[in-house]
């Protein structure tokens, strides 16, 4: 049991890599991301008409990055190189970490991935909302170049969770105000070398 | 709703003051403490024979420091000066922060304080376990002088949550091994000036 | 004697909480605040026509946060919850810390609080000036969202210390220039839930 | 050209993940690792009897982590989950990053991987030496629990680069002295859940 | 040999002082500056028509701050007080550090200083380019007040290395865009007290 | 006046370089060193039989590093290269910084340097005591390899300030206890290449 706790403790040490790439000083940890996702999901749930299984919601939110204990937080720009196997790797890592201690989390992660239940949609909506609110706080506090996150705010999908959409609208507006007309240059984020072997 | 989320976001910025006092570089935040308390409570719950209301357990763990958003994390050494009013201040602050957004958390905090239900005892046992495991990790990693926490490990009370007691025993042993025979000098932590007006 | 020194050493570890709340990375410590208050008071004193007792001025400046050794730096937003007892707590803590080692500081802290002597007004004017110059430096360096401090600069009271007023005018102007027209949103700083029991 | 420079600049932001996992505060960056690998290779080369192509050696050392710009530094514990595709992903990422700007680095990385030339063996020996000297410095400075690195020092392979072996012997001895008899507990580093699908 | 490596390891600990003065949180280290200078020199060299001795170029770039191991990175504002003896001190320090281990670096540093060979000009152009690109990244990421570096970009001298000039033109433009119309106040950077003994 | 304040503000940004070299994470700033020197001098003065001019004592303590605003904190290992001109450079820098604002500090710095008055000896004794107590705190908190400071404690000279000697004796003892029998290897700190031109 302590082994598993100690592994999950690692999440408090791992910086969210996107903020590192954006030059944010002292960025949030993966555990902070999970904590706030849970808090946001809880708050959103209060505004829903449907009943939700709160134990499930909070467990999903808290454990949804468990695979990062062993794989760390990979940046978006890694996507073209890892997308094929990343999900399988995460699933296996999660299984190894929780083995014999908290295995009932595994089906919850699967449920979250499938986005069919209200709980899954709520947590997913909360997770994405956490990301754009974090971007808004960083823009407000001049921490890093987070102009790229305008796009995340713009394409935010509330997955039918209405209060999430309402909050996201305010966040989008405020983020825009804080960023002002700063130029956005995709410095080092993407290059499209069309190479035969990536096809 | 966003106001409340933004206030709770503050927890990711507040360092746990005990570790600051102990000279731990880059100490965990209050949000990390809450995140791990929730994780530990979840894991311990898997080993209990009694059924527990997991939504309640995780909500208690996640929100139990909500008052610190406005009061910050006060160190133990403040206790003689603030103990009379601290709890009332926390209660009021929690009420103001959650007002109109997540007020159903308030009775959970009261329940946790009373330590009568299994959920309350579980979260409390998890919280104290989080503290001594954090001490153990810091001792392991040579971060700060945490020799004072030997005492916390020694007097750990599992509140009847048997798996918590079992883990705490291992933690106590390992903490002792990592600290070795380092001298413990209560440098600046306590002084007992008996002054008329403190009585 | 070493106990007292070691306690006061704690001031070098405590971050000024206002800057933490404002998202300033690597904010100044309480000791930095005291150091600069002393430096500023010294410089202002050179421009005064009245003679000042410099030993008293510098001692006041250096020791004026001594209570924070045990109580830490509480944020403004704690004010509604702690204002009634905070001053008494600080006085007691200061007494315990300096007991038998530097008790002659205690009447100086009292004198500073009463703002009657020129030395007290000078140190108080210097302290507030330190706060708005720090805000100006942070605005200049893009560290955190310190737009709230526009208000501190606007309502600066030099307490009759003319050179302080002159410097504050420049600081106010520069702070305004650095902040530009950034929106100020009191994110998480205040909420006015009128609750019966706070009255 | 600036795009490529800006991407490689990312290496100065990426922490070496092994030290993060080990709880080292303010750990070295990937760029520091590359810088020191180059420095060490240069110094070792002075002691070799064979002539080496120094331009090749230093270029290999400086660019050998180029793929991490997009993939970041993956920890050892990720190995069971990523080993099959990691090398291919790195190769592709390196190609995309250096495309049209410094493509002549690519065959050097291939050469380094094959360990056939003296230059390749020298850089590889320097890289591993950098890791164990870093561990020694951290042990000396009490930064993190690096007891795991005793094993890296023990199994150090100089690949025939004699001066590297000589330095490694001293490093191994000093590392042992600094670590003393600290217990080594593989906290969170490995678990052997034999699962059908990992075979 | 290990002594020399350990001394050069110090470069990874030394912050570039100019960024400290500019209020940049978590600024780059001297080793990062050297690493990027080498990387940039390598990239620029690919675009040159003349052949260059790459071993020499990279060694110059990597070792050009070796004297700072003992003298640290002195800020520009120290110049009036130290300029007479600084170069001699650096030369001596470099000699002591590399003594008996990598003395063939010393003539390279002399060559770099004289700026006569293409290798020397290339590394010097790369070094200055590293400084203004770093300023551009910091401006982009809102880290510190780097408005002073507009001047560095404006007076950039490519020393005949044409691709360096081309990149510098883009950097200058982008730096200007990121800085916008922020006021530049030479806060604390220079004062011209004409004193007899400085003449 | 604000220019001078802003320059002195720089002292809060400058790390004490000795601790950087020793691998101390988040080391104290120059301003922290000055603050504690002043505090210690104040406390020691309470135990002296002789009267002291406290305004002078505290001003000396607060301003004694003023030259570092422009020269930064040079490490011990720079001594062989800079000792001839360092003092003159500091004097000139101090004069430029304080010019027209607080010039009456200059004779105090001279007085402190001459060590003739009780105030000068008191501040000097306090400054050295600050250094060894800082070393003791770092040893206690496992921050960096400060074993070198055993020597500073051993050769501490109280300059006739008896209470300083008494405290230093306790510090020396505790420092020894915290360091235990850790090996001391002068890694990178000194090398005695006897070179003709250093004579």
Automatic annotation (TrEMBL), chains A, B, C, D, E, F:
- Enumerate the catalysed reactions: a 2'-deoxyribonucleoside 5'-phosphate + H2O = a 2'-deoxyribonucleoside + phosphate
Broad enzyme group:
hydrolase
| Residue ranges that the Swiss-Prot or TrEMBL entry lists as coiled coil | 108-135
Q: Which residues form the HD/PDEase domain?
A: 26-141
Q: Which UniProt keywords apply?
A: Coiled coil, Hydrolase, Metal-binding
User: Cofactor(s) for this protein?
Assistant: Co(2+); Mn(2+)
Cellular component GO terms, alphabetically?
cytoplasm
**Which is one GO molecular function term here?**
5'-deoxynucleotidase activity
Q: Name one Pfam family in it.
A: HD_3
The EC designation for this entry is 3.1.3.89
Can you tell which superkingdom this protein's organism belongs to? Bacteria
Q: How does it assemble?
A: Homodimer.
State the protein's name. Answer: 5'-deoxynucleotidase
**Lineage of the source organism?**
Bacteria, Bacillati, Actinomycetota, Actinomycetes, Kitasatosporales
């Amino acid at each position: 049991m302590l082994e598993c706790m100690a592994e999950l403790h690692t999440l408090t040490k791992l910086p969210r890599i996107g903020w590192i790439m954006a030059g944010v000083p002292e960025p949030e940890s993966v555990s902070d991301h999970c904590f706030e996702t849970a808090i946001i999901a809880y708050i959103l749930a209060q505004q829903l008409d449907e009943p939700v299984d709160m134990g499930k919601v909070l467990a999903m939110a808290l454990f949804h990055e468990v695979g990062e204990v062993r794989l760390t937080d990979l940046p978006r720009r890694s996507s073209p190189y890892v997308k094929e196997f990343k999900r399988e790797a995460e699933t296996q890592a999660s299984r190894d970490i929780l083995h014999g201690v908290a295995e009932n989390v595994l089906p919850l992660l699967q449920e979250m991935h499938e986005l069919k239940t209200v709980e899954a949609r709520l947590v997913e909506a909360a997770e994405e909302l956490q990301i754009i609110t974090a971007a808004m706080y960083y823009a407000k506090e001049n921490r890093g170049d987070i102009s790229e996150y305008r796009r995340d705010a713009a394409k935010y999908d509330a997955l039918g969770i209405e209060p999430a959409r309402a909050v996201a609208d305010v966040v989008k507006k405020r983020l825009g105000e804080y960023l002002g007309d700063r130029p956005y240059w995709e410095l080092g984020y993407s290059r499209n070398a069309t190479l035969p072997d990536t096809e």
